[in-house]
Amino acid sequence: MSKHPNDRLSRAEVELLLPWYATGKVSAVEAEEVRRHLEANADLRAQLLAIDDDRLVSIAANEDVAAPSSGAIDRLMDDLPGVSKLSVQTPATSTLSGLLVWIEDALRALTPGRLGMAAAGLVGLMVLQAGIIGTLVSRPDQSGAVYEVAGGPEAKGVVLLVRFVTDAPVGEVAKFLEANRAVVISGPETGGVFKVRVGTRDLPKDDQDQIVDRFKEQTSLIRMVLPSR
Amino acid sequence: MVDDKDLLRRIASGDQPAMRALFARHHLRVHRFVVRLIGHEANAEDVTNETFLGVWRNASGYDGRAAVSTWVLSIAHNKAVSFLRKRRETPLDEDAAVRIADDADDPETMASKADKGTQIRSCMERLSPDHRQIIDLVYYHEKTIPEISDVLGIPHGTVKTRMFYARKRLGEHLRAAGVDRGWP
User: Which of A115, A134, A168, A189 is least enclosed by beta carbons within 10 angstroms?
Assistant: First the structure.
């Protein structure tokens, strides 16, 4: 490969930076250089594909870890040094400013869940109809568009982490999702990961596995799928 | 929205609702970070609480240089490493031994699993804790090189090479399981 006059990074340095390029955590100048190397090197492009796969697996593995028990915060407040047990403040007795922070955060957490499934489906389809999948999985330094369309702790259904094939026809993807009563609930995250909810009720593990298998069979549309909490 | 740095300033002056708010924002990611490192959910809950006790005690020492989430993860890292050091001094309990055996499939078992995602996951679980941890910091926590350097207390160059060798090792495990991704 002939060296671009503005290049400062060697190929080896680009290889080291690839994971951070994949998550959009390099500078604009570095990203431009990495892009030039990617255009010229098929093996770097293969590494980037592998990185995107690994990223989805890492996210799924972390999301598999259950939240700590609901009493954790109360135990922590009880253990705070320098705080008398009698004076431990709950939201009901806290200062106004602290209470506002608490309420604000709680509301932010709840808002997406208030969207109905119909609305979620509509927006999910709008996301998919906005262009081909490839345009939605561009790197964060190129697009930055992230959709949060439904979800929330009270929403039910089977949630999957999905990476679509980059040049999958949008119409086919939309048709497949509709046929499986699936909606896009968030994404694309960096690396082109979407969260997809299937159905509206919780299912036993065997049924969930069948849904995952159904998605895996769609190799012309879906590059990888993993269950998510 | 009150940002994390404001919350820490309030915590430094003993504001308990601010502590609750910071905990609500960050505890799940911290808990996952700890579980993935020490591999035991019940113990991880204690380590996570220890981490936030550390936040309460040291909030006034936070210098604002790093993002609060990075600073909290650096405390969690130190607490988890201390926990692991202590655990090494005590015999492995039977439950933990069973879990370790369950988590690490042998290459034949992995080869029989056709799905690539499952195979990558099995191979990731076989990585050393250092390699698994840096992969999570990059991919799940989406930390930059300087941020990971802060969390782990290692130079930027080491962050990059550790991630490189983690990827390389993962590729080697996968190749042994019959998945050739063309690299390394």
Answer: A134
